[in-house]
Amino acid sequence: DAVGAISLADQARQALERSSAGPELAGLLAMEALAHLQLGDADAASRCFGLGRAETPLLARAEVLIAEAEGEVWYGSSERAASLLAEAEPVSGTAELRKQRSSCLASVLVRMGRVAEARQVINSIDVASMTGRPGEKARVLGLLARISWAEGGADAMQLTDAAIRHASEQGAEFWRRYAEAQLVTHADPAAM
Fold first, then answer.
1. Which of 91, 123, 165, 191 gives 20 to 30 Å between its CA and that of 99?
2. Separation between Cα atoms, residue 108 and residue 182, nearest integer Å
3. 87, 81, 169: which is closest to 118 by C-alpha?
4. CB–CB of 48/30 below 8 Å?
5. pLDDT tens profile 123-172
């Protein structure tokens, strides 16, 4: 619920402004920006991303840059997303941020039609150890399925089923639908 997310973000921002908020405020602004994008308000999203970058020290900026790249993947330019991810690379210090950056980069590469490169990036992620951000493992499993379909892989249906099952178990509704879209787009109706 994007409207609810913006309302909660406003309340949280007020609380953080009364504290010594650092990267928490930047992360909050990034999530608020994504909610604005879902509502079609690119100007408000841009303001939030800009504030997030401005309010965050360089070494903590990766979360904002990756979230902004996510927004570009879904609502904007693949080239802009790739540029943001390149900017985030040297400051993606934690293992979870590197995984998030890699999964976003794989999405960008698939969108650009650079499937072999996307496969290399996604294969570098240890999917079993993904625990940081809710839905991230479901996203990677969905990307693996999408890449396999694009490559004409024999395991595409199996990967799609695994992605749907995992996303359903985790309550990651968006990523379940993403994986299901692979079936609708690629699978032979007679095989379903």
1. 165
2. 17
3. 81
4. yes
5. 998 887 776 666 788 889 999 999 999 999 899 999 999 999 999 998 88
